[in-house]
Amino acid sequence: MEKQQIQLLQDLDMKTRFLRALEHFKVDYNPETGRLSDPVTIYAYQKRKYITSRLFILDDSFNLMDGNTSRKISFDKVQTFKLEKEEPPL
Question: Nearest 5°: phi and psi at 54?
């Protein structure tokens, strides 16, 4: 396989991983607005975490939107995802 084809498969794999994680967490995602029904943490760049309630899936990265700030995270830098639900008060 060519390098470009392998990269394309990896990119598709990350999109699939993310969408499966959302399904597992029971989080709804609206691709038009980028809104998530619950915040999700994306762990990337060796020990960094990004908590977001809104993101867009691009060709090779996630574009996180928080307020007026955006942050692009390349698929190859993402390690895992975690659901960020608040614990109910005692």
Answer: -150, 130
Question: Phi first, then psi: what are they for 65, rounded to 5°?
Answer: -120, 120
> 28, 31, 52: which is closest to 40 by C-alpha?
52
Return d(Cα 54, Cα 61) in angstroms, integer. Answer: 14
User: Which two three-digit tokens encode residue 27?
Assistant: 């989080």
CA dihedral 25, 81, 13, 75 (to 10 degrees): 150
Residues 30-68 have pLDDT tens digits of 999 999 999 999 999 888 999 999 999 998 999 999 888
Cα-flanking dihedrals φ and ψ of residue 45, to 5°?
A: 50, 45
83 Cβ contact partners less than 8 Å away, ≥ 6 residues apart: 25, 27, 38, 40, 41
Alpha-carbon dihedral sign for residues 8, 33, 42, 80: negative
